[in-house]
Amino acid sequence: MEDITKVQTKEQQIRLATRIAIPVLLENLLMTLVSIVDTAMVGSIGAYATTAVALITSPGWLVNATVQGFNAGCSVLVAHRVGAGDWEGARRGARESMKIGLFLGLFFFSVFELLSVKIPVWMGGAEDICPISTTYIRIIALGYPLYIMGLATCGAIRGAGDTSTPMKITALANLLNIIFNFLLIYPSREIVLGPVRFMMWGAGWGVTGAAVATGFSTAVSGVTALVIMLRRKNGLYIRLAESFRLIRSDMREILEVALPTAGERLTINFGQVMYIRIISSLGSVMLAAHHIAITAEAISYNPGYGYQAAGTTLTGQSIGAKNEKLAHSYGAIIIWSGVAVMFVTGALLVILARPFVSLFTPDPDVTEYAAMAERIAGVAQPFFALSIVGSGVLRGLGDAKITIPIAMLCMWAIRLPLALLFVLVFHLGLRGAWYALLIDLVLRGIVTLWRFYSGRWKTFHSWITEE
Predict the structure, then answer these.
(1) Most buried residue, 26, 101, 263, 426, by CB count within 10 Å?
(2) Which residues lie below 8 Å from residue 66, measured CB to CB, with a gap of 6+?
């Protein structure tokens, strides 16, 4: 990892931030492709199958929120240690990350297995759809222990500035997912490649096949992360013979970031569950259109999460090195770089909305509504960038707690009341629900940007003095 204190010019800082962001961007793009492949392949079966998978999306966000919180905490811990030159402390943080991830995986596996029958019902699923969703939940939960352990380990790896390794792990998982989707979702059929014709075996399991492919590939990603860390000889590595005991001071530092980050995500995701319930009341067609629009939109905001990771890593390492000016410089550069990139992706989303969403469904009604939602999402992307990238910067700077009230304000005081108003009172349908989302993201981005430039994060570090 390059010594960030030796990176002096703005151009050098932009290049370093971009070098860290690009692998995360590609990793998130690959993760999105998993969702897109599942959506497209399952969607080809019928709208009922898309709806069955959509019912698990929001509860899955609740798992991701908690995991992302602890991943961010582990990443910041390692970043601070690396910035301070404490590699032994960084390696201990990596071991603790792995243990935390395994415990979280076992916990969520147990919860989803116990509640698998009830979750689709709570999400407002139709009677004939709920059993399919239950099967899907039970199967993907089998991979949680290894998968979440791998995610936590990758969070520690990113904190050390290595974002290419997690990208490669995700690439492997995606490749496996696509292969097993192809083999398990569809029945045996004839494949025609030009003049060549042959019979391709297929299990014909439908939604169940998609679940098996996802559960298996994600579990493999966790095992791969462990093997890579065991095989490393220097830098950040793990040895099974060393202590995996959780150190109280380390856990305190992890939780200072993990709890606010998880709280922010849970606040948003619980709100998204209620948001989905509002959209579910509009019927299966609009719910399917919303699910496809959300899946397709993810490609446009993937760059934001790349720059978010760069922001957490570089501002975190700057704080570890006790360099206030460098931390502020990296924060500003990374935020505005993310906005510039997502302005472009948002514009493409507006221009290419209809042909893009038509890749996911042959249903003309679903396509029409999904394209409408995509155009609204495109307008929101620059403001969404301020929120995504800015929150990562604030975590690295030690100002993670502010993200919870920002999330509560924008989701619970803005999006949900407006969604209810636009859908139930003004009868704007799915369009009204997405207008509420747009207003939420605009306000969230502006408030997050204000918090960074206010300089309040400086008060959390005793070594920063007023000039």
Answers:
(1) 101
(2) 104, 108, 262, 265, 266
> 386, 374, 380, 370: which is closest to 415 by C-alpha?
380
**CA gap 269, 271 in Å, rounded:** 5
Domain-embedded: residue 396: yes
Asked if residues 359 and 417 have their Cβ atoms less than 8 Å apart, the reply is no
Question: Quick check: helix, strand or coil at residue 198?
Answer: strand
Please give the torsion angle defined by the CA atoms of residues 228, 234, 238 and 244, in that order, rounded to the nearest 10 degrees.
Answer: -160
Q: Is residue 467 part of a domain?
A: no
Backbone angle region of 334, left / alpha / beta, with phi > 0 → left and psi within -120 to 50 → alpha: alpha
Report the alpha-carbon distance of residue 201 to residue 189 in Å, rounded.
7
Which pTM was predicted? 0.79
**Helix, strand or coil, per DSSP, at residue 189:** strand
Domain assignment of residue 351, yes or no = yes
How many domains does the structure of the chain reveal? 1
Q: Is residue 465 part of a domain?
A: no
Q: Catalogue the long-range contacts made by 6-15 (C-beta closer than 8 Å, 24 or more residues apart).
A: 10/329, 10/333, 13/329, 13/330, 13/333, 14/333, 14/337
Asked if 124 and 277 count as a contact pair (C-beta separation under 8 A), the reply is yes
Q: Which of 117, 153, 74 shows the shortest CA–CA distance to 312?
A: 74
Residues 211-251 have pLDDT tens digits of 999 899 999 999 999 999 999 988 899 998 888 888 888 88
Please enumerate in sequence order all residues whose Cβ is within 8 A of that of 240, keeping only pairs 6 or more positions apart, or say none: 230
**Domain ranges, residue 286:** 4-460
- In sequence order, the 6+-apart residues with CB closer than 8 A to the CB of 199 are 188, 189, 190, 191
For the chain, the distance separating the N- and C-terminal CA atoms, rounded to the nearest angstrom, is 31
SS3 label, residue 293 = helix
C-alpha span between 348 and 333 (Å, rounded): 23
Residues 342-380: tens digit of each pLDDT: 999 999 999 999 998 888 778 888 899 999 999 999 999
Angle at 438 between CA 432 and CA 440, to 5 degrees: 110
d(CA 455, CA 328): 9
Token match 């798992």: residue? 63
Q: What is the pLDDT of residue 462?
A: 78
Q: Per-residue pLDDT tens for 22-44? A: 998 888 777 766 666 666 777 77
Residue in the block written with tokens 């009922």: 48
Looking at residue 178, its amino acid is I
- Cβ atoms within 10 Å of 382's Cβ, excluding its own: 22
